[in-house]
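User: What would this chain look like folded?
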Amino acid sequence: SELGIEPGESPGILILEEDAVLGENIGKIIEFDDTIFDFEIHSNRPDLMSIIGIAREVAAITNNKLKTPEI
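Assistant: Here's the prediction, encoded as structure tokens.
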């Protein structure tokens, strides 16, 4: 599940093209180019332990207006 592939969804071993360069980023080779954000949230910032909290912080840092969804 770390790669977004659930058990039973993958056919097994991935066979790469002959021209795949050894050492190349596998994400480039298989065209998996999603952006991944890795946050380290400390216990003194419980406000950041939600998507809205992260969005609020990013909006403040980038000087943008926060758009919250209607609930």
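Residues 1-33 form one domain. If you want, I can go into more detail on any region.
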